[in-house]
Amino acid sequence: MPLDALTSHLTGLARERGGVLGVVPGLVTEPGPGWIPAPDLAREPYDGLLALVDETAERWGAPRHVAAALLWKTYGYWHTLPMALGWALGRRVPLMRFGDTLVRSSEAGVTVAARTVTVAVLPGDPLAGAPGTVVTADLGAAIREALLDGQRPLIRALGALTRVGERTLWGSTAEGVVHPLLRSGSYDEAARLLKEIGEPVEGLVVPDGSGYRRRTCCLWITLPAADPCASCCVA
Question: 4, 28, 66, 91: most buried, per Cβ within 10 A?
């Protein structure tokens, strides 16, 4: 199967986290109670998205614009992570397209899944041309297109609701690219992927010692008594 390595990795990650994971390990699920299609969240008057923002605000005692940034830190990370890991584990990238993406509230903040997933593979991959795959010589461009298609509508909706800046939110997406790759490799590998993707995430995370530092703030530090994130750009 195209995503066996990724599914195994996500299953192990779920086990490490006591089952609290913001993405379904197999990525695909059937729509059902609690699941919200992503396009519904980006549709005015944004009632579903506002409910998630307000839930986040209540959880952390945060103003609405901070809650929007923290909600995106969760959503953007989990939506991005399968693509970053798929690239790293075998150059097989699951493209969770906007129209197929499902979201629900969870212990992880939100959990993301899809009705169906198209897997982007390189021309020399043995699975090239198999059902459910798309062949491309530029996986970075495929990820960029998936991010713009799948995240920009929600980022703009959050901005319309709370005036939180787009660059702030794209910074959390950039962290979703880098952070999971550092668990099993060096920053150089993550930097390579950021460069392949390009805008809007390239340049929003930079190396710092053995780790990285963001160039945007997720706004967590603005909460009373909150310790700064390890990657905080203002601490």
Answer: 66
| pTM of model > 0.85 | yes
Q: Residues near 135 by Cβ (< 8 Å), separated by ≥ 6? A: 120, 121, 122, 123, 125, 128, 129
CATH 1.10.510.40 applies to domain 4-222: yes
Give Cα separations from 156 to 45, 51, 227 (angstroms): 13, 16, 28
Q: Six-digit token pair at 68?
A: 């929007």
pLDDT tens per residue, range 106-152: 999 999 999 999 999 999 999 999 999 999 999 999 999 999 999 99
